[in-house]
Amino acid sequence: MIGKTKYTSQMSKAVSNNGNLTDGPIVPALVQMALPASIGYFFNTMYNAVDTYWAGALSTDSLAGLSLSFPAFGVLLSIAIGVSSGSGALVSNYLGAKNETMARRILAQALVFATLLSSILAVPLFIFLEPILGILGGGPGAQAEGLAYVQIVLLGSPFFVLNSVWNSGLQARGDTKTYRNILIVSFFMNLALDPLFMFTFGMGVRGVALATVLVQAGGIWYIARRGRTLGILKDLTFQDFKPNWALYKEIAEQSLPGILNFFTMAIGSFVITSYIGAFGTSAIAGYGASIRVEQIALIPTIGLNIALATMVGQSNGAGKIERIGQAYKVTLLMGLAIFVGVYTPIFFFGHYLVRFFNEEARVIEVGTAYLQIQSVTFFSYIILFQANSILQGLKRPGAILWIGLFRQVAAPLLVFPFLAYTLGMEVNGVWWGLVVVNWSAAAFTWWWSWRLIHQREKQVKTLEPTVELGEVSQPTA
Fold first, then answer.
1. 244 is in which domain, residue-wise?
2. Is residue 135 helix, strand or coil?
């Protein structure tokens, strides 16, 4: 009991002092941030699983339609995740450098910047959505269902983006509990709204999309209220929210690689889905079901990624680079333990998990094969995501884009047709192609992230930790 009390005390102090993560024990601080985030993203993934379940209950075309919507929906998420990760890195660096005023101004500008960017991008995407889905294949029924779903989601695009950027301001301070609460409540709201809109109101798959938009709108109200309580925009005026091109440039430079990286993920989803679509609607449906299972398995690692990015940003701003390497090693070991503990039962019981979403034999066959083959590459995702957290926190995100282009576009276009068609492996060739592509990308990203850490260590030893930039003091990159 004495040891447990001491460890609990360390955890309670780890993210105290207004979210300061530049001092104190590393492991308790990471756990205190990662655990609420992982719980939250568990409910977020279960939220998506509910959508997948009800769509599968409606028809195989509806389930396939949701799978076809992944690329278009990914474009929207690229804005939300890219700007939130970029602005979050800037906020955490400014907090580490004890520049609270600039941390608040960056968040204010990021909220407006992300809303404008997502609204502008949603217009052409909405206009060309039908031909985009037509390219993906899967049959007319699946395409019609995907179109009905994404059209409504695009109309609510600002809600998704604002939620994500607001959350980045909280996470930069080590607060992962607020968003956890939002995601838990969102799950239960979606659990009730999906069948209500789909069946009671007869909206079908459109009901899934409407429920999602309404839940996101409710989340903004709560997270903004929480932000005001914590004072993360304290003392700011209307002028601080008006577009400031100098700050927009700073946000864009940090966010653009992340946006484009997630955009390449949307393109990568397009590439994967187009290859799977050649093998029929059931193959796409099996992929959609197995992806939900894989997302559940990745949940604990998402918490680690968030915790690592926050600690890296603050430590970089404070010039304490030794904490970055230590935290990186700890999270990789934690990720390995998660992989072994979580994916082992999925490998053996994946058949039953896919069957939960759809009982068609071909859907189960394709989904089960995906889950078993992905056991070989699962840990590569952990390496990739944690390395990206390092690059964002060090304010060196440029390589993320090039790695994403290789992993999502260039390599798949070479590997997938060779394995699927030349070697005759069909849809399993796509799954084994993912193994080859992701492990090659993970190996390079791991090497590159350590290279940047060592470079930053040398820089801190020879330079002052901050430099004057205009009227504000900004951490060096």
1. 39-475
2. helix
